[in-house]
Amino acid sequence: MVIIRPEPGCSASLELARGMPGVVAHGFPLFEVSARSWEAVAPDGYDALLIGSGMVFRQGGRGLGALKGLPVYAVGETTAAAAREAGFAVVASEAGSMQTMLGQLDKAHKRLLRLAGEERIALTLPKGITMDERIVYASAPRALPPELVALLRCPAIVALHSAEAARHLTSECVRHGIRRAPIRLAVLSGRIGAAAGDGWGEVAAVPYPEDKALLALARQMCQDPWPGSR
User: Fold this and answer.
1) Whole-prediction pTM
2) Average pLDDT along the chain
3) CATH 3.40.50.10090 domain extents, the chain
4) Span 2-30+142-223: which CATH code?
5) Contact present, 212 and 186 (Cβ < 8 Å)
6) Distance (Å, rounded) from C-alpha 157 to C-alpha 50?
């Protein structure tokens, strides 16, 4: 199993994967995350924060301080844990998409501030809801290291946590002349699988976007017969 998400998520996923029986896991953080300067906002203009990644709290900087009085809608428990660690109160968190989270807003939370990365999903707002966005971090892709190039020339399962990672992996395989047919992808959503394109040995998505579910899927794929070998 190969994990390519940025740190600190790569190390966290790798630790979980290496605790699974029957799995040989490797971690290669193929993205370098850095903060982006962003315009601080007055908290009284908003009712709540909408956050899809714990990276917001790691990279958001001093501008986050004025927003700690706003409740947070966090997608996934990992994001919620990062919010609490940074001193924010989480009003709702569960596995699912950010779009799904919008359907669970408290009636009093009509004015949202979304803090996000440069790579983000477009959202459709429910009637009566307004939302401003601030980009607080970005991920820069890294080239495949030689060790990973060698691994991908053999059958492997790659766990993909984002569409950005899917596109980068695809382009790097093309650049290095790596055949995609021997590689199977476990992806966090159908959208991520679509971003990877075709030609892979298999693309399988989890029913809900959580890291533990993704790694469990990847482990199951490791145990299954390889497509075409049955």
Assistant:
1) 0.84
2) 93
3) 2-30+142-223, 33-139
4) 3.40.50.10090
5) no
6) 32
Cα distances (angstroms) measured from residue 147 to each of 115, 141, 153, 196: 35, 17, 10, 21
pLDDT tens per residue, range 129-149: 999 999 999 999 999 999 999
Residues near 44 by Cβ (< 8 Å), separated by ≥ 6?
none
Residues in Cβ contact with 95 at an 8 Å cutoff, skipping those fewer than 6 apart? 76, 77, 208, 209, 210, 213
Three-state secondary structure of the chain: CEECCCCCHHHHHHHHHHCCCCCCCEECCCEEEEECCCCCCCHHHCCEEEECCCHHHHHCHHHHHHHCCCCEEEECHHHHHHHHHCCCCEEEEECCCHHHHHCCCCCCCCEEEEEEECCCCCCCCCCCCEEEEEEEEEEEECCCCHHHHHHHCCCEEEEECCHHHHHHHHHHHHHHCCCCCCEEEEECCHHHHHHHCCCCCEEEECCCCCHHHHHHHHHHHHHCCCCCCC
* Fold of the 33-139 domain: Rossmann fold (3.40.50)
- pLDDT tens sequence across 167-196: 999 999 999 999 999 999 999 989 899 999
Q: What is the separation, in whole angstroms, between the first and last Cα of the chain?
A: 21
